[in-house]
Amino acid sequence: MANEMTSFVQIKNSNKDVAKKLKEIFTPKEGEYDVNAIQLMNRMHGTNYSYKAEKEDWDEELDWPSINEWDDMIGPKWVYVEEFYMEDDNELGSFNIRSAYSVPQSLLEGLSKIITEIKEDCYLIGTYEDEGYDPVGAFLYAKDWDDIEDLDHAYDPQDLWEDDELRDQMWDENSQLEKDIESAYKEYLKEKE
Length: 193
Hints:
- Strand 3 and strand 4 (92-100) form a beta hairpin.
- By secondary structure, the protein is of the alpha+beta class.
- The chain has helices at residues 16-26, 37-45, 60-63, 67-73, 105-118, 157-162, 164-192; strands spanning 4-12, 34-36, 79-86, 92-100, 123-130, 136-142, 145-150.
- It has seven helices and seven strands.
- A seven-stranded antiparallel β-sheet has the order 2-3-4-1-5-6-7, sandwiched between helices.
């Protein structure tokens, strides 16, 4: 099985219109707790793809995305979004992404485009970690700006599994990296003015 990457994403500077759109994208079907890659594609890009088991006369050429479409819209070979939440004032929200091997950068770029078309200064920021803690890092996606960086400091995965304090130290460093990326973005906005 592929290594699982978990991305912890926050939506900042949101509003009720962004929250409404994200609820359309991230609300699981009844009886499910997450949203899969095909559902994300359909909801974000207006496609009508399906899994073979979902359609009696399923035709791969019509009902399944090409490799290029998958790469452009999703990225990793599988993705699930879960735990979507928006604050009552709709200015801040969050969700988690589980994916194969890597951060789903194409998915995040697509989401960023959708939310910034609704509210230009809305952005996505977060951290990610591979299940073996290699890599670990942070990212930010906004209008005309994105950055994704792995944590510079390499940790031995076995040490991280055995030492809670060392794992906390790694998470603190990753949180600082996330803050540094956000500071760089805010500096970019000031320079644009």
